[in-house]
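RECORD CONTENTS
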Amino acid sequence: MKNTVFEAFNNGILKTPAAAVSFADIPWAKHAVYEGVALKHLVTAKDTDGRFSYHLVQIEPGKSIESHIHETQLETHEVIAGAGICINQGAEISYCAGTISIMPADTPHEVTAGSEGLCLFAKFIPALC
């Protein structure tokens, strides 16, 4: 699922007083567990002394990040493009562009992309990686 907002972030830039990092230079990685899921680690623990991390996530049509928990991280999702469903604490939340969802630490959650796929930011506090 690609659109202009997604492409702006995919090719965006992290600017700090000390440096600028082009997101276009960061490779996409297949998720280690979930088929049809790709991640781009935009801001990692090494960038923030472990305080938080930002990840661009693409989920192919009909694919899922199945139910799981992060024992110590609060996670947020900010939907950029596409549509899908998130199960968060047992409640079904419809995902579409502009939706934000929050999963407290140690909270079961899962995400399934709809027929057009799903693109989102996943942010973790403290950092996931």
Observations:
- The two ends are 25 Å apart (CA to CA).
